[in-house]
Structure formats: C-alpha cells, structure tokens
Amino acid sequence: MARAVTTQRKAFNTLLAWGIGLGIFFPILWTILTSFKTEGQAIADPPLFLMFDWTLENYAVVQERSDYMKFLTNSVVIAGGSTLLGILIAIPAAWSMAFVPSKRTKDILLWMLSTKMLPAVGVLYPIYLLFIELGILDTRTGLVVVLMLINLPIIVWMLYTYFREIPSEILEAARMDGASLKSEILYVLTPMAIPGIASTILLNFILAWNEAFWTLNLTAAKAAPLTAFIASYSSPEGLFYAKLSAASTMAIAPILILGWFSQKQLVRGLTFGAVK
Amino acid sequence: MIRKTAIQAAIALSIATSGAAFAETITIATVNNGDMVRMQGYTDTFTAQTGIDVEWVTLEENVLRQRVTTDITTKGGAFDIMTIGMYETPIWGSNGWLVSLDDLSAEYDAADILPAMAGGLSHDGTLFAAPFYGESSMVMYRTDLMEKAGLEMPDAPSWAFIAKAAREMTDRDNDINGICLRGKAGWGEGGAFITAMSNSFGARWFDENWDAQFDTREWSDTLNFYVNMMEDAGPAGYATNGFNENLSLFQQGKCGMWIDATVAASFVTNPNDSTVADKVGFTLAPDNGLGVRSNWLWAWALAIPAGTQKEASAKQFIEWATSKDYIELVAANEGWANVPPGARQSLYANPDYQAVPFAQKTLDSILSADPTNSTVDPSPYVGVQFAAIPEFAGIATEVSQEFSAAYAGQQTVAEALAKAQAITNDAMEAAGYR
Predict the structure, then answer these.
(1) Å from B136 to nearest chain A CA?
(2) Is the pTM here over 0.90, yes or no?
(3) What is the pLDDT averaged over residues B187-191?
(4) Beta strands in B85-209 (DSSP E)
C-alpha cells in the first residue's frame, strides 16, 4: 500500500529538488550572465547578478576573433562520427555478450571498463606518434577514431545493460521463424532497444562533445573543435572572463539545447531497467 | 610547335608554382594575452604584403606549453611557428629542435633587440627565438594611499621599506590590503615570484654541485619574510592568488602595492577597466642591499621548430611580427601604450614612447635583470625566476605546491622548506645531476 505523502512533505521535496537543481545549474547560469557583462563588471566585488548594463560586445569580439562555425562543424562531425562508429561496433559486441555469453564475458566487460581508469596523459606520446606515422594528426578522422575508442567501453556497457532486459525468448522466436543473425539484430533487437540506444547515443555524444584532453592535444588549426575554441579565451595573464564566458556559452549552447529537447528520452534511457 | 607548347607549359607551371608558393599557409601556436591577440588582428596586413596565409592556434599558457612540447619532442610538425618563452628556448635550442634565427635580414636589425632578451633567447650565442614582447617585474603602487600613509616611494626600494609601507597602507575596515603578491602554486605563478624574491635575499636553487639549497638561512629568511608580511598586509586567501586575482584586486582599489609583471602596467592604468587608473605609480622591484633585485625577466618569443617545410615563410612572419615596422603599425592604430614592450632598444629611444608613464621603469627593470648572473652566490644555472634545465618545471611545480601549503597555514615554513629540499635533491639525483 502506498504511503500517504503530506502537503508539507511534498512542498519540502519540491523546494529541495529545485534547490539542488538550481545549485547544479548555477555555474552555467553565472557563465551566461557574465558573458553579457563588461570585463570590469565581470570582476566586480560584490558580484553583479542581474542589475548591470547588459552588452553583446563580448559576443561581437569572439565572433570577430574566431571562426565559430569552423569549430562548431568540427565538434558536430567529431562527436557525431565517434558516437555513430561506436554504436555500430558496440551493438554486435553487446548482443553477443548479452545473448551468447561465454564464461569470460564478465571478465571482458570489466577489463573493457578498466581501460577507462588509465590516465589519458600516460598514452599521449604513443598515440601522438601513431598519429604522426599514420598522417592523421590534426584531422577529424583521427579524433573520431580516438574518441570512439575511449567511449567504446561505456557504449558497450550501456547497451549490454539494456539488451539484458530484453527476453532472449523473443530473439529465439525470431530465429525459429528463420531470421538471420543480421535480421535478428536489425529488425528484432534494435527496435526493442531503441530507448536504450537513443540514450546511449545522446550520452556519448555529450561525452565526445565535452572531451578536452585529446581534442586539444591532437589538433592544431584544422580539426580543432569547440573545446579548443574555449581554450583560446583562457589566459593566466589578463582578465578576459567576460569574453571567456561568451565563448563558453557559444560552445555549450548547442549541447544544452539538444539536452533540453531530448531530456525525456535521456532520462527514460538512463532509468531503463532500474525499477523492476 | 612542340617547342612553343613546351614553353607555354613551362610558363604555366611556373605561374602555378609561384601561385602555390604565395598561397602557402603557416600555422602558429600562441598564447592568449593582449599583445598576441592584437597581433592576430593585424595578420591580414602581413598576408596582403607577402601572400602568406596564417592560421592561429591560440591556447591558454599551460595548455600551449604542453601542446608545443609534445609536438616538438615527437617532431609532429603541427606548427610552423611556436610562441615560447625564455625557459624553453635555450633548452630546445641546445637540443637542435629549433631553427637558428641568426640569418634574419639586415633591415630587421637584430642588434636592436635588448641584450637581456637576446641573451635569454639564445644558446651558445645563437638566437633561437625572436622576442615579440619582453617583461620584467616591478612595484605598482597607489600614489594616493602612499601619500596618506605619509611615505614616499623610493626609486629603488628595499624589502624593509616595502614591508613597512604595506603595513602602513593596510586598512582592513575599508578592505584595503597593503600588498598583493602571487601565492598560487605553479612554477610560472607563485613559484616565479618567490624564486625572484629569494634571489634578492641571497638564496639560490642550487649550489655549483647541483645540490638543493632550501636548507639555507637565506631561503628561510625569504619565506618567513614573505609569510609574515602577507599575514599582516596581504589579502585573505593569498595562497591561491595569481596574476589575474591580484590584477582584479588592484583594479578594484583593494591593493596598496602589487609587485608583478611589467605588462600589468597597461592594464592598471587603463581607465576602462581600472578604478584607480590615475593613481598608480611605478618603481623598481625591491632588493635587500645584496646587489640583486627581486625582479624577473621573461619574453614571449616566436621560434621555428626544426623540420618545418615552411621555414622561409615562417621567418618572413617572424621578421614582420617582431619588427620596428610592426611597432609603428600598432602605435599608429592603437597608441604607444599598446605596442609590444620590452623587446627593442629603439622603442625606448622613441620620444613618443618615453611619454608613456611606465615605459622607463619597465626598461630599467628589464635592464636590471641578468639571467646569467641572477644570484648573489654563484649558481650553475641560467635564468632569473627559473633554472633553464628540463627538470625545473616539474620540480618547481611541486616545490611551489609545498610553499603554497605553508602560505595557507597547512604546514609551517620549516616543513615546506624541508620537503622542498627533499623533492629537489631526489629529482636531481634521479636525473643524474648529483
């Protein structure tokens, strides 16, 4: 029997949820507000919250100094490409682990995840040298491959978890009806796992979009994405906080909008199988 | 007929080739600071003059350092020009990683480069990077607060005077700190300041046998003097303050004095950003009567990595960007206060530039720093606020973390120095110096 919840309790929970939500969102809100201040207002003490002369000057300066569209295009191609490539590789891998497990499947899954524990800087030089050798330094192709590889364990893990929720009898029935392996994955498994696949795509797109170590270290002028765009406005010798905030706002805007529109899908996918 | 066709083909080929040469694009890695950003704005002028296109990779200083170091040590070839400093240049030059700039044109007038800058950017007499701008450090102070305290700032103050003035100017009720100094961990942040300060106290990083010297009285005096002064007259949380934090405090009128990079002078006197723009005076960094002042020497310079396929175009760009003409170009468009300082002697002979309030003190500060003889007792290294050896950045970052922990009250000065001694000696032993 469900427990009755009092109005006060509801109000308290609502306030608490709003408080936590606003606390988490506050740094982003502050960045957005700072982007509309002058450099002087950005460092004012006490800080100015809403009562300041709003200006678009920082956006104009950033727009004039940097080719935003080039960075944005690179981000979309790199994040999108690495996510799609990862999904293509991970679906068959997760299928085999979920439906045809061997006695080493759990070990392999753990081993895959353990690769995420390696500090990235530890393999910077080998990967850099490989990129030089292969001629893919400062190319989108190179970054698509690297970001796919570093996110692959998470993609496989997420898909494996979703696939495990699908009754294997359904796939067996499809096989009995004469479905090939390809048809089984494409026409039976994938449609049923769409919420999980969609949330995996979204989460990995966000991870790839925000990835800064490899995107800064393996690019120069041609393939640099929005992380490099932000880094170009950070300076330890000079106060450019307002411009940095404008650049940051421009860099996170696309992913914020995407997240806003797909939040239902994202939450549904992330909580898939959480409640039995 | 065949001959005519051959000639036409040759002409077409040569036009195509020259067109390709003109359309060459060079990639430059640089830091995000005012002068460098300004230079990017004038790139079109260079392209119009030479036909060479320029692509910029602008990064935060520490990110840039890691990025260009990775590229040059692996011969990656991602950049045709790199912006590097006085620390990297002699090390990379001695490793054969940089192209010599000794053959720049006569019009460039390399002899006009300030000797301190040229010396710090050379190895064995060969220039490996051309200074775009140079800096030292000096005292920036509030003239009104100094007057209120009944004191007069000397042309060459001592640390004793600075400490006395700092305590006199401090007004906690009105949120005014007598002095703002770097305390932030990092070899280029608080590490640079305390190293330069220690020089004037007679301390040094290493003796002639590369043994660490943090167990000496001079280092103890330096750190204790710094901590006592900052506790009495510094801002709260100074252990995490770097250049930007102190700049912000000074511009808001919350510092009586600030000892930091000479390039800050143009920021604190800019009325658009600084609330105290018309009340700032400048003087030399303090000393302790031992013949060495506490100012540092640094230059952001342009260098060409060995192995680039576009060496000629890269040299053309460096000649343009570090030339007298470039300085004139900036002065004509943005005024003399905004030209890149500290690189050329002729700039300081220019009457228009002499009228800029901080020009002479900047030059005096640069001239008083000697990277080849920066300590009271002899030392085996080159560099004022650093020792130009590859191991220094890593060691000094760790040491400065220990110092910052002492500033924050997490350990005593004696504990920080003991740890610094052990860290440094261990690292130097591992590197084969001892």
Answers:
(1) 14
(2) no
(3) 93
(4) 122-123, 126-127, 130-142, 177-180
For the record, the structure tokens of B375 come out as 């300590």
User: Model ipTM?
Assistant: 0.83
B242, A236: Cβ pair inside 8 Å? yes
pLDDT digits (tens, 9 = 90+) for B286-337: 999 999 999 999 999 999 999 899 999 999 999 999 999 999 999 999 999 8
C-alpha distances (whole Å) from A105 to each of A96, A111, B290 are 9, 10, 71
Return the amino acid letter for B98. Answer: L
Name residue B293's beta-bridge partners.
B287
Question: Confidence class of residue A3 from pLDDT cuts 50, 70 and 90?
Answer: low
Phi then psi for residue A87, to 5 deg, are -65, -45
Residue B58 in tokens: 């602008």
Per-residue pLDDT reduced to its tens digit, B381-427: 999 999 999 999 999 999 999 999 999 999 999 999 999 999 999 99
A231 contacts chain B (CB < 8 A)? yes
- Whether B139 and B162 have beta carbons less than 8 Å apart is answered as yes
* Residue B13 pLDDT greater than 90, yes or no: no
Q: Is the dihedral of CA B407, B408, B411, B416 positive or negative?
A: negative
A217 in contact with B at a CB cutoff of 8 Å? yes
Q: Across the interface, which of B32, B242, B243 has its CB nearest the CB of A234?
A: B32
In angstroms, what CA-CA distances link A224 with A66, A129, B23, B29, B378? 12, 18, 22, 13, 46
Give the span between the Cα atoms of A270 and A256, in whole angstroms: 18
B78: closest chain A residue by CA: A220
CATH class of B136-296+379-430: alpha beta
Contact B63 A239 (CB under 8 A): no
- A115: closest CA among A146, A142, A140, A91? A146
**Closest by Cα among A68, A77, A216 to A137:** A216
Residues in chain A closer than 8 A to B59 (CB atoms):
216, 228, 231-232
- Find the CB nearest A231 among B63, B77, B273: B63
Residues of chain B with CATH 3.40.190.10: 2-135+297-354, 136-296+379-430
What pLDDT does residue A43 have?
Answer: 85
A66-232 adopts what CATH topology?
MetI-like fold (1.10.3720)
Give Cβ neighbours of residue A3 (< 8 Å, ≥ 6 apart): none
Name which of B34, B60, B272 is nearest A231 (Cβ-Cβ). B60
- Chain A: closest CA distance from residue B296 (Å): 15
Axis crossing angle, helix B34-41 with helix B43-50, rounded to the nearest 10 = 40
Q: Which fold has domain B2-135+297-354?
A: D-Maltodextrin-Binding Protein; domain 2 (3.40.190)
